[in-house]
Amino acid sequence: MADRRSQLALSRSDQDITPKSHKVVKGLTAATLGGGSLVASGLTLTGTIIAITIATPLLVIFSPILVPAAGALLLATAGFVTSGGFAVAAIIAFSWMYGYVMGKHPPGAKTLDQAKAMVASKAQDLKEQYASHTQSQ
What we know:
Blueprint: H1 2-17, H2 21-101, H3 109-136
Organism: Amborella trichopoda
Main location: other
Transmembrane segments: 38-61, 73-98
């Protein structure tokens, strides 16, 4: 039994010392992918620097045209987005009013009815108060 344990321990230590083929393949794959990524990032950086070098003089030359055009485009876009937002809000409001008038009780109709009843009650109280005030004079 002790002999078997010593052989097992010896074989485990031999396995730890010798590199396995999949470890070598993992290392080569990592090195290949890392190197490829490094080359790709270098090419991207080089291309970006070349593009900036070419585009900068063009932007300086055409900036009196591009800056006002960009501003006009921004204002036009903001106008269309705002107009669309107002249109959506109006459609939602008209849809709610249509449902309220037709008696479908949309969300918030109960609160509106309570407010209407409170205003009517207050108006009735003021009317009675005015009537009693005018009779006493």
